[in-house]
Write a structure and sequence with these properties.
heterodimer, A: Immunoglobulin-like, 5-stranded antiparallel beta sheet, B: 8-stranded mixed beta sheet, 7-stranded parallel beta sheet, globular, phosphoprotein (chain A)
Chain lengths: ~425, ~190
């Protein structure tokens, strides 16, 4: 999505940022902290381990002994997971039917979880310590009064300042343990290398492969904890959450695109897309294009904004770095084209007087509210099967309507300043006529 | 003797058993035998060109399904020495909307999902599910309880066979006669209804 920032004077790719998490099947919203805790997975929905589609819960009636009277049986509902696409069911891997519709399904426990968690804690502590040392070295280079001033001004927000509260001059104290550090030293043992490894089974080479039982690489790698080689050990995993992202301009930190928080809504709170500000060039009709013969192509220019826009077209110069693909010479109209503003009520207002623009009939073919049709001349330069590609630059005035109007301007001069933007346009006109 | 009307399009070798529900809008041509409790929806087509078709009981043939016993491609209808092969379809099969089945031998409890295409040289055993839009034109016997799914016709084996659609069949056998005329088998002494 091409975005347009009010500070736009050149190419600034927007910086994406995570806005909110949601589950694609149950559309449940989750704040980022909760998502991180749940490892970016939904708590209710599962994915089929075989074909990765969403699993649905199905119910069957099974006879079960009544609690009061073991001899009589009553129908109880039992739930199992099933995939509508590949017909996988939770019974295939031996998971027993549950008596509750949701919440009864557990992912199998990874036997190495404890060791992994311990390793993570140890390395987190190590990283934190290294970070503190690095910061301490940085702070020690500054004047000594500065750290005190900083920590008082900005409060005890950061971890650094929290631990410095008791000892502001500890930067010179060296490598002592700080007070308030409540983590005890975590010791981990290095992994043990074993001398003896389980030998391969004897019939490893002679046993015929049961192909339906072998898991595909994709199925295997989607479960990195276990990576089962047999299909009967493929357990369903919780569904991955999707993210909505917001875009922000790198230069001026302006929010360019902010979606709605509600996962069911596809609208945006802020949406500054280029399409709604830059005039749109469309191809209307193409005559037969012949090699080295000049033909006229009819293009339209549509003005998406509500105020008058002036557009100038300029052919690309020799050696233009953006002009890589063009295979034809193009002659664009030299005069400035004026586009009327987009008027939403124009369709309904029959009494509106058509604005008089005095169009040159050689250049402008027609004019209809905020759209004009104009001609360009094209001379294809390449023979053969490739499409005829032309490129040119379009220069238009962009008024930033979002910026506040300065209060000391007079009422008559209420328009904002126009910025002239230039864009490179490439049009593919299809193949040469046979 | 019987009369042939344009609407009914029944040829003399169509034998429809007593409990079957075959809508008049379906097209049945050639030597076709349909077992009891089978439901044939309107716009389904069962065409026995190159040989007879025998359909068992409890089958569900939905709209725009095409079951055709056609000549193999390299043989013209007029060539000699071509023996008509019978296409047999077992019990409790489901032919979903828009599927095409040319398989000569289909067992029991199979499901051919929507817009699937099963070729002539495929033999379906029992409990097989041919997924939607899967085109199977290999020359093989598909083992029991196999599911073919996905664009690459991936396969896997199920542990249980698909359930027979008894509920659906009962419902249809009750409701369809309320809205459609049914074909009955044509006997010499009986008028087609």
């Amino acid at each position: 999505m091409e975005t347009l920032c009010p500070c736009w004077v050149g190419e600034h790719p927007a910086e994406p940022k995570v806005d909110s998490h949601y589950c694609p099947s149950c559309l449940e919203n989750m704040p980022s902290a909760e998502a991180k805790l749940k490892k970016n997975r939904c708590a209710n929905c599962f994915d089929c381990p075989c074909c990765m589609h969403t699993l649905s819960t199905r119910a069957t009636n099974i006879p079960a002994p009544m609690p009061d009277d073991p001899t009589k049986t009553t129908m109880k509902k039992a739930y199992y997971l099933a995939c509508g696409f590949c017909r996988w069911t939770s019974r295939d891997v031996g998971m027993a039917d549950k008596s509750v519709a949701s919440g009864g399904w557990q992912e199998p426990e990874n036997p190495h979880t404890q060791r992994i968690n311990k390793l993570i804690e140890y390395y987190q502590q190590l990283a934190q310590r290294e970070r503190q040392e690095r910061d301490r070295k940085k702070m020690a280079r500054r004047r000594q009064c500065m750290p005190m001033a900083f920590s008082e001004k900005y409060g005890l927000g950061t971890r650094l300042q929290r631990q410095r509260a008791g000892a502001p001059l500890s930067s010179l104290a060296g490598l002592t343990l700080k007070e308030g550090e409540d983590q005890k030293e975590i010791i981990i043992e290095p992994a043990q290398a074993l001398d003896e490894v389980e030998p391969l089974p004897e019939d490893c080479y002679t046993r015929p492969i049961n192909l339906p039982e072998v898991t595909t690489l994709r199925q295997r790698l989607l479960q990195p904890d276990f990576q089962p080689s047999g299909a009967s050990q493929l357990h369903p995993k919780h569904k991955h959450l999707l993210m909505k992202r917001s875009l922000r301009c790198r230069k001026c930190e302006h929010n360019l695109s902010k979606p709605e928080f509600n996962p069911t809504s596809i609208k945006f709170k802020i949406q500054l897309v280029a399409v709604s500000y830059i005039p749109e060039v469309r191809i209307m009709s193409i005559p037969n294009l012949r090699y080295m013969k000049e033909s006229q192509v009819l293009l339209t220019l549509t003005n998406p904004v509500e105020n008058l826009t002036h557009v100038t077209l300029v052919a690309c110069e020799e050696g233009d770095p953006e002009d890589v693909n063009s295979t034809a010479k193009v002659m664009v109209p030299t005069k400035e084209l004026v586009l009327a503003g987009k008027d939403a009520a124009a369709d309904y207002d029959e009494l509106a007087e058509p604005q008089d623009f005095q169009d040159d009939p050689d250049v402008v073919a027609f004019r209809k509210s905020n759209k004009i049709g104009f001609f360009i001349k094209v001379v294809p330069q390449k023979e053969g099967d490739t499409d005829v590609l032309v490129s040119f630059k379009i220069r238009h005035d962009f008024r930033n309507l979002a910026a506040p109007i300065r209060p000391n301007e007079e009422a008559g001069d209420a328009t904002t300043e126009a910025i002239w933007l230039t864009h490179h346009v490439e049009l593919s006109l299809g193949p040469l006529a046979p | 003797s019987f009369t042939m009307t344009d609407k009914q399009n029944i040829q003399k070798s169509v034998k429809i058993a007593a409990g079957a529900v075959v809508c008049v809008e379906s097209e049945i041509r050639g030597d076709v035998t349909i077992g009891p409790r089978t439901v044939v929806h309107p716009k389904a087509r069962i065409i026995a060109e190159a040989g007879p078709i025998v359909i068992g009981e409890g089958n569900l043939i939905e709209e725009q399904a095409l079951i055709i016993n056609s000549y193999p491609e390299n043989i013209t209808p007029d060539s000699e020495g071509v023996e008509p092969k019978t296409m047999t379809i077992g019990i409790n099969n489901v032919f979903e909307v828009g599927c095409v089945s040319q398989a000569l031998k289909i067992g029991d409890n199979n499901v051919i999902e929507s817009k699937a295409d099963v070729g002539r040289n495929v033999i379906l055993t029992s409990g097989c599910i041919i997924g939607a839009f899967c085109q199977v034109n290999t020359c093989e016997v598909i083992p029991d309880n196999t599911v073919l799914y996905g664009s690459g016709c991936l396969r896997r084996v199920q542990t249980e066979r698909p359930q027979p659609q008894t509920l659906q069949l009962d419902f249809l056998m009750k409701i369809l006669p309320n809205y459609h005329h049914l074909k009955k088998t044509v006997k010499a002494s009986q008028n087609p209804s």
